[in-house]
Each structure stands twice: as C-alpha cells, then as structure tokens.
Amino acid sequence: MRLAVTEPGAPEIFHSLQGEGVSAGKPSVFVRLSQCNLHCVWCDTAYTWNFQGTEFHHRDDTPGAPRKYDRAQETVDRSVEELTEHLLALPCRRIIFTGGEPLLQQRELGELIQRLKEADPSFYIEIETNGTISPVGLAADLIDQFNVSPKLAHSGNDTAIRHKLETLRFYANDPRANFKIVVESPPDLEEVKSLVVETEMPLSRVWLMPEGRSTQELQQREQWLADACLKEGYNFTGRLHIHLYGDTRGT
Ligand code: SF4
C-alpha cells in the first residue's frame, strides 16, 4: 500500500486525538494513505497528491512557483503484512485511515482490516473519504465508520468530479456514515443545503466545519458557522488538532 510520510521513508502513522467530526476528542491511530482523486485548493495534505509534473493549483502556489512535492520523497510502500504487524504493536485499537483518499486502495485496505479484526476483534475502523467512491467487498463489510467529506465549489474541483450523487446517497442510507462538510463563507450554506436535500443526508449525521489551517483562521469562521448550525439543525465541529498542535504532519 502507498502511504504518505512524516519524513522520507517513515510512513505517516501516528497516535493522536481525532480533531474533527463525530469522533472528535477520541484517542486514535491515524494511517495516512497517499494519492487523491480530488485536488482541493486549500487541502492541508497536498503532499499526498500535488506532485511535481502535475498541473493542479493550490493556494500555497506563488506566481511562477507552484508548490509541488517530490513523489518519491513523499511516499513509501508497505505491504499489508507489514502494516498489520505495525498496527497490532500499537496500544490503541481505534484506527482511522485517512489521506488523500483511502478508498483508492480499498482492495488492500479490506485485506488489512480483515487481518486486523481476525487478530483482535476489538479494532474499530474508521475511514475518511471524500465521498466520490463507494466501498466494495471487504472494505464495505468490515469498516465500522465512514467519515464522508463531500467538497463544495470553493474547493476548486469541478462539480462533476466532486459530487457523485449516487455515491453520496449510498452513504446517506448507511447509518455507519457521518458527513463532514468544510465551509469557507456564509454563501456556502446554500450549496450545503442543496446537497443535503438532493442526497437525503439525515441532518443528525451532518457536521459543518470551518475551513482553516490556523487557530486565527478558524476563529474568524467559528462563530457565524456555529450560529448557522444552531439555526439550521446541523452539528458543528471545530478542528481540535489545529488548536492543539498547529498545521503539522503527524498530529
Ligand atoms: S479530498 Fe481531501 S485529501 Fe483530497 S485534495 Fe481534497 S482535502 Fe485534500
């Protein structure tokens, strides 16, 4: 499987508190897989996809100097067997596969989850996904929780690639799935409402989260977004890890 790294050769696997959404505050082991099928301009893990030789734009670009990452330095491969051994040796049984987009590697992911659960049925497995890919096979059956984060227009992705309505309806129908939607400014709330209605997401499983990679950016958006959540019936989530650790890898 292809993973992101904290430093060349070291897979980004770390123990921390979940910072966002329904599991916020829970101690978890994060496994960050590399590669993504979307290219959000504000992505805080662009090192999983914005590699040299690509033409994707990111807000860290400066005129004449796009911010690009070296694919060979930013990725590392580990077998399902190696990852099983690594995760079994850690003290925490809540595992969150994040990315990038983890479901791009769902065949291997399913095998890994099966091995983990066979070794210790107490493993609780969460997948963070952008909601464009449906789980199949083992990945569909063995995952305990999906944290689905569909992207809005401000992400910079075309509608056709960021909104797969049938896939979002699949998640809306699955009680294991919770939705976390990143909001940048008040006009985004209209797009949220349309998406929620069109895909029949139950409001009780929808969290709105302010966009921001620093405490200052988040604080500028938290108050009006919290007010909107109260008014419209959405759940609110901040980004606990940003407040605690800043925008750093491995946290
Ligand atoms: S879907 Fe997630 S990982 Fe992919 S580009 Fe967007 S924010 Fe980054």
Automatic annotation (TrEMBL):
What would be an example GO MF term here?
A: 4 iron, 4 sulfur cluster binding
Quote the record's binding site residues for [4Fe-4S] cluster. C36, C40, C43
Which domain of life does this protein belong to? Bacteria
Residues bound to substrate: L17, Q18, G19, R32, T98
List the pathway annotation.
Purine metabolism; 7-cyano-7-deazaguanine biosynthesis
InterPro entries linked to this entry: 7-CO-7-deazaguanine_synth-like, Aldolase_TIM, rSAM, rSAM_sf
Assigned EC number: 4.3.99.3
Cofactor(s), names only, from the UniProt record: [4Fe-4S] cluster; S-adenosyl-L-methionine; Mg(2+)
Provide the cofactor note recorded for this chain's UniProt entry.
Answer: Binds 1 [4Fe-4S] cluster. The cluster is coordinated with 3 cysteines and an exchangeable S-adenosyl-L-methionine. Binds 1 S-adenosyl-L-methionine per subunit.
Q: Where does S-adenosyl-L-methionine bind?
A: W42, C43, D44, G100, S149, P150, K151
One biological process term from GO is: tRNA queuosine(34) biosynthetic process
Q: Which Pfam families match?
A: Radical_SAM
Q: Which residues bind Mg(2+)?
A: T45
Kindly state which keywords UniProt assigns to this record, in alphabetical order. 4Fe-4S, Iron, Iron-sulfur, Lyase, Magnesium, Metal-binding, Queuosine biosynthesis, S-adenosyl-L-methionine
Name the chemical reaction catalysed here.
6-carboxy-5,6,7,8-tetrahydropterin + H(+) = 7-carboxy-7-carbaguanine + NH4(+)
| Subunit composition and interactions | Homodimer.
Described purpose of this protein according to its UniProt entry: Catalyzes the complex heterocyclic radical-mediated conversion of 6-carboxy-5,6,7,8-tetrahydropterin (CPH4) to 7-carboxy-7-deazaguanine (CDG), a step common to the biosynthetic pathways of all 7-deazapurine-containing compounds.
Looking up HAMAP family in the UniProt record yields: QueE
Q: Which family does it belong to?
A: Belongs to the radical SAM superfamily. 7-carboxy-7-deazaguanine synthase family.
The molecule here is called 7-carboxy-7-deazaguanine synthase
Q: What is the lineage of its organism?
A: Bacteria, Pseudomonadati, Pseudomonadota, Alphaproteobacteria, Hyphomonadales
